[in-house]
Amino acid sequence: MSEIRDDLKYTQSHEWLRDRGDGTVEIGITDHAQDALGELVYVETTEAGTRLDAGETCATVESVKSASDVYTPVAGEIVDANTSLADSPEKVNNDPYGEGWLTRIRAEDAGPLDNLMDAAAYRDYCEQGD
Positive or negative, the Cα torsion across 28, 130, 127, 112? Predict the structure, then answer.
């Protein structure tokens, strides 16, 4: 079973979100997602300073199997992007919840985070198959 952390929120498209407590939200892909994708060979993040609406692409990850967009469930401005992933995309495979984070966004409204799955709900979602 993939690692699912209790301190994060999750989306049905397998993004994880960490409320950093300073008005920003860190976004990455789950252990389940990186496992399904396989070895990542390319990661492209949205540039800091870019404003995104909820549901827009904040990063793209590409593996030997396929390419996938990563979406932000909150609107706001990208304040930081993990540009080290351009040279080391394997960080997402090796540490998806740590060094493999993708982007940080200053949420205009953190309310949508309340509607995301907690760890128990995401675990059930993964077990049922997406």
Answer: positive
